[in-house]
Design a protein that fits this description.
This protein is α/β, with parallel strands linked by helices. The strands form 3 sheets. It has a 7-stranded mixed beta sheet with strand order 11-10-9-12-13-14-15, sandwiched between helices. A 6-stranded parallel beta sheet has the order 2-1-5-6-7-8, with helices on both faces. The protein has a two-stranded antiparallel sheet with strand order 3-4. It has 8 helices and 15 strands. It folds into 2 domains: 2-135 and 271-287, Rossmann fold, CATH 3.40.50.2020; 137-269, Rossmann fold. The longest helix is centred in the C-terminal third of the chain and has 17 residues, at 272-288. The chain is globular and about 60 Å long. It binds ribose-5-phosphate (R5P). Ribose-5-phosphate (R5P) binds at residues 157, 160-161, 207-215.
């Protein structure tokens, strides 16, 4: 087995290769004068793990090209962050189900797909190959444990992320709650933990994605107003669009951390171990057939 990754997932691909004790294949990435992408891979093997987060149009095309370059091999596709997964329904007439379009496009010629904390697991039904979603909640729990905070309160920004926050909190047996939004007037909303008080506590807000940072920045300001001692933010996928990192820091958040599903300066923990576990389980199952 060998591992290969797109340009924006090369660090995670190398970590996965190390974790499964496989060779990483070098790739040359460049562009033709008209802007079209070109790739050329080193020598591939019969079994390939192709790693690529979809973070922009180029990463999507590079992933399709890598899969094509591995034609003839048994391919496990790892999609650490699947862009377009949040448009998983037709919200208005004339819209595509973008998650379905992307899932179909990347899974045509692969044998298995692995996603990480995908926004909604029902998206997996759109892949043409068997697909499995894994969670790095435990890894985020380990990261929080290493911060050695006194009696932290783990908070989900909404009830949709409550189960994820619970899985993080279980790692350290910490208190856990989710934030509730109450409308006070036309313009005013109050955001507070549903059951517990944040007063005098170290709060860690955890979520699957930080995109614009708006959800967490607003929540952090409210929590500090309610007397929280300090607020941290930790997510799986640091999309961090439109100046989100600075926005979160400006809101007073002590530290913003994400995993390497999207490689960022604030990637503080890796999804490689969790992904490698599934790849190795797949190998054992295949061996038993
Ligand atoms: C939404 O359902 C997701 O779980 C995140 O809460 C959301 O994508 C965060 O977006 P933003 O950072 O733009 O507030």
């Amino acid at each position: 087995m060998k591992v290969i990754g797109t340009e924006s997932s090369q660090i995670l691909a190398s970590r996965i290769a190390d974790a499964v004790r496989a060779e990483i294949v070098g790739v040359k990435f460049s562009k033709f004068p008209d802007g079209e992408l070109y790739i050329r891979t080193g020598s591939i093997s019969d079994e390939m793990v192709v790693v690529g987060s979809i973070v922009d149009p180029d990463s999507f095309v590079q992933l399709l090209l890598l899969i094509d370059a591995c034609e003839g091999s048994e391919i496990q596709l790892v999609l650490p962050y699947m862009g377009y997964a949040r448009q998983d329904k037709k919200f208005h007439d004339g819209e595509p189900v973008s998650a379905r379009a992307v899932a179909r496009a990347v899974s045509q010629n692969v044998n298995r797909c692995i996603t990480v904390n995908i926004h909604d697991p029902s998206v997996l039904l759109n892949f043409s190959a068997p697909a499995k979603n894994v969670s790095v909640a435990g890894t985020i729990g380990d990261y929080i444990a290493a911060m050695a905070l006194r009696d932290p309160l783990v908070l989900a920004p909404d009830d949709g992320a409550a189960r994820f926050a619970q899985a993080v909190a279980e790692k350290g047996g910490w208190d856990c709650d989710h934030l509730d939004k109450t409308r006070i007037s036309g313009e005013e909303v109050s955001i507070a933990p549903q059951k517990l008080s944040a007063e005098n506590r170290s709060v860690v807000i955890v979520d699957d994605i930080i995109s614009t940072g708006g959800t967490i920045a607003t929540a952090a300001s409210m929590l500090m107003h309610q007397g929280a001692r300090e607020v941290f933010a930790a997510c799986v996928h640091g999309v961090l669009s439109g100046g989100a990192f600075a926005r979160l820091k400006a809101a007073g958040i002590r530290e913003v951390a994400c995993s390497d599903t999207i490689e960022r300066g604030c990637s503080r923990y890796s999804a490689a171990g969790t992904i490698a576990g599934v790849i190795q389980d797949g190998k054992k199952t295949a061996g038993r057939r």
